Amino acid sequence: MHDKIAVLKYFLKPQTFDEYPVNWKDIFGNRKKLYVEIGFGSGEYMAALAKENPDINFVGFETSLTALYKAQINFYKNNIKNARVIQGDARLLIRELFPSGSISKLIVNFPCPWPKKRHKERRIFIESFILTLADVLRKGGTIELATDVDWYAQEVYDNFSKSEFFEAQEIIENFNRPIKTKYELKWDKEGRNKYLFIAKKVKDYKVLRILEGVSEMPHKNINSIDIDKLKDLKDKKFQEGNKTFVVNNVYEDMINDRYLLKVVSSDDDFIQQYYVAIYKKTNSWLVKLDSVTIPYRTPAVKFSVYKIAELIEEI
Ligand SMILES: C[S@@+](CC[C@H](N)C(=O)[O-])C[C@H]1O[C@@H](n2cnc3c(N)ncnc32)[C@H](O)[C@@H]1O
């Protein structure tokens, strides 16, 4: 039931460029078109493009914090105002943070191809992400992949060719773009082959998103807690539909009269790690998300807070 309510709430929310899930107009201060880069590394490609194209806004995704740091220094030094960076797995965040039809171009330069079969799911252009792109790209919008790995270019070409939502263009070998990335310069020096693949979105698709915007922090007041039940939560796993969470550890903070639970939750493939705090109040206990960690308040995160409160309450 909870699941259905969450999903319904999402669909009832207005989904225009200005509103849910992220107000890009307010972030950039204008409504210019959006280009997104995944895995920008040091950010020199995005910085050069952003500088050359002041009429376009750029959003870059990286898993590496160092990469974010370097890119932001680059933007600052070059007075670049039309680029922003976000840390995290782009495949999930792009689905959650962009409304339908809001991205004009997606750029991926020299991603790791994850050659081992057991790492296949780490590749960028997996089936679920191609469906996300069929939602978030505007019709006529493009994806652009540059790679030095021939079989990977072919695999991505095949994946997009199979999709009814995209028109795949022939792979261009040893392309020459005016701006080169750090990896590209390295591979050029070594004389490696390079491949450029472009696909155009031709048909809309609607993916299911799991975030619900900036909703209230989940919390619950309970009269008293059972310490044994609380300590017993360590290493326990809970599941309800596609929401799962595990309590990795239970810490006692005697100075602040509270307990902290380290939790890992997942909504399908969206995994987050955070703390749930249990505070002693004058006549009760408060179970809430700890403010040091700020997970997206997904159904699984809410489920973890309410379930923990239910399980530790002394009856
Ligand atoms: C091989 S480097 C290429 C860097 C840069 N594009 C270049 O051409 O010089 C790939 C980058 O992608 C980032 N990356 C890999 N998977 C990612 C994902 N799912 N979301 C965001 N960034 C990712 C890595 O952290 C790494 O910095």
TrEMBL record:
MF annotations from Gene Ontology: tRNA (guanine(46)-N7)-methyltransferase activity
Residues reported in the UniProt entry to bind substrate: K116, D148, T181, K182, Y183, E184
Cited InterPro entries: SAM-dependent_MTases_sf, tRNA_(Gua-N-7)_MeTrfase_Trmb, tRNA_methyltr_TrmB_bact
Q: Where does S-adenosyl-L-methionine bind?
A: E37, E62, D89
Q: In which pathway does it act?
A: tRNA modification; N(7)-methylguanine-tRNA biosynthesis
Reactions performed catalytically: guanosine(46) in tRNA + S-adenosyl-L-methionine = N(7)-methylguanosine(46) in tRNA + S-adenosyl-L-homocysteine
Q: Give me the segments passing through the membrane.
A: none
The UniProt entry, under Pfam families, shows: Methyltransf_4
Tell me where on the tree of life, at the top rank, the source sits.
Bacteria
Gene Ontology CC annotations of this record: tRNA methyltransferase complex
Family (UniProt): Belongs to the class I-like SAM-binding methyltransferase superfamily. TrmB family.
HAMAP family per the UniProt record, alphabetical: tRNA_methyltr_TrmB
Q: What does this protein do?
A: Catalyzes the formation of N(7)-methylguanine at position 46 (m7G46) in tRNA.
Designated name of the protein: tRNA (guanine-N(7)-)-methyltransferase
**Whose protein is this, by species?**
Marinitoga piezophila (strain DSM 14283 / JCM 11233 / KA3)
